[in-house]
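hi! just following up on the protien thing from before. the input was this:
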Amino acid sequence: METPSGSSTQGMDRHFGGGISLGHITELIGNSGTGKTQMCMNLCLSVQIPKTAGGLEGSALFIDTRQDFNPHRLLQLATALERQYAHKVPDFKAHKMLQNVHYVRCSNEVQLMASVLSCHSHLENHKNIKLIVIDSLAFTLRMLENKSKMFELLLELHESMRELQRKYKVAWVVTNVLTYRVSKERFRLVPALGDLHSHLINERIWFSRSWQRYVGKTWETCRLINSPS
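and the predicted 3d structure came back as:
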């Protein structure tokens, strides 16, 4: 699945060999305002690039836990993508792209779990769905005061996501945030949701406010994959 064109994503394209991989869970991590949601929307559009132009010609499902999804911004991005492919694929139109982004809103952990479980029916009814986005995976889970319940639910979510991966070969993209953890009497900025979650995802892309992107499971081992021009 191609990532969107532009200086901020060319390094990502090189790293992923053309885009996010089907059958993988890719996490976008960073604080608010670093471009994670916009990247998710861009991916929902680029998954639709026609096969004649080297794309998957699929559709996307966007699970929104933060109510941060902006359809007007999605239209702007779709219009830009339409212009980019106007000569190659004249019928690749913005209004058609919007129709192929299926939207689900959920405001708590129960709705999130129900939304992931209902992906089976979404994928049966819309067999061209190639990408499922959860923006954000951390948002509703971190509201739970009972951490044991949070990790139990997180494991259930991962189990369901893996099952869907195996059966339908879809790509999952989830967003996460950074939080502070005390280690050796020092505060460290680390990904939320814990080490177990980190082991269960396939790839982690770090987003910074300087628009640089890094890839790696931990900050100590990650490497730069793009730098804004």
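The first strand starts at residue 25 and ends at 29.
The beta strands are 25-29, 59-64, 101-105, 129-135, 171-176, 178-183, 186-191, 203-207, 213-215, 223-226.
cheers
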